Amino acid sequence: MPPQILLTSFTTWLPHQKSNSSDDLIAKIHKLCLTNNDLQLPPLSVLRKLPVETQQASNYVNRKITEIQPTAIICCGMAESRTQLTVESNATCGDIVLRSPIDLEQLIAELSVTQISHDAGKFVCEGLYFAVLNHITTQQLNSRCLFVHVPILTDENMQRVTKDFILIIQKMALL
To answer: Which of 167, 157, 159, 152 lies closest to 24 in space, CA to CA?
Structure first.
């Protein structure tokens, strides 16, 4: 069976936000998969517009992980203050730090607008990332998880961000 990738995104949480860039990016990827057979992406399952509440979002995602047993999970969130895609190296909850088992340096080596971050934000993004990493560990699942923060998407960065994100998906499928 080919690897399956689970992609997640959040809805907005502040009044000025017309959309969530993480959801916009996943919607674009999903549309590209339907219209472009040359992308060479593995089967994707998507959970879009998760509530911006850690426990609810974590419950939805962990139930989906248990249900479909994806090879990889790429959780995405919006980072309004960042200008590039950022892959998160770890998630904390209290004094506990869970680190991504993925070689992030290797993952981003060929990407043009992606950096490694060591601060997942201390908000729902980090809470979800921690919960998913913990779920994978405690349930002894054979899945890899990555959290990607997506900058505000503009006409100037959309093509490069999309290209990097597609490469991240392709690389995660090979892990």
So the answer is: 152
